[in-house]
Amino acid sequence: MNKLSKKELKKLRKLKKDYQIFSIKLVMAGDTRTGKSCALIRYCENIFEKFNPSTIGVDFKSCIINIENMTVKLLIWDTDGNDQQRKTVGNYFQGCAGIFLFYNSSNRRSFENLEEWLNEIRERQIHSGAIKILIGGWSDNEDDKVVSTEEGRFFANVNGFIFIEVSSLTGKNVENMFVCMGRAVLRNLAAGFVNVGIKSNGISLVGEPRQHKN
Length: 214
Known about the structure:
The protein is built from seven helices and seven strands. By secondary structure, the protein is of the alpha/beta class.
């Protein structure tokens, strides 16, 4: 995704006023063992945990990201992909600025189950300005892939998602997926598609306003 333009950055600085940073609520969803937690840990801690246990319920991490000299705090909810937890997980979709929807490139069923996740997202009536990114996890070994890049990209295009394949093992595109999400959310904000400070949009301002000297 292209960098934010000077015009977009000017609008964002005007919206930010004297507050320090934007805070963005994000949700990671998809079946169990699709790489959600591994990608999050790889990005936030720069480590790869091969035998990372599956998330039970919901996990949470926050991190600071710099996008074109614009400081942004990402609040990331890593959700349980278990079938029995899907309705509970769906509660976290409401009031988010963006959703990462994962499938495992080496697991056909996780890709087929994307339709069920889409239905859950639609039922929760996510606001129209929410950014949706489809993540093809476990994409480091072409020999193990049973879902092609073309299939993933087609599904994303049909359903209005950005598409990115990642590998937490090699680090491929892990940072890019978070930068891409941050840029897309800020671009929508600059264009006026979403407003800051409205709970349902998942974007807020953080920090005390700077005091100006007389």
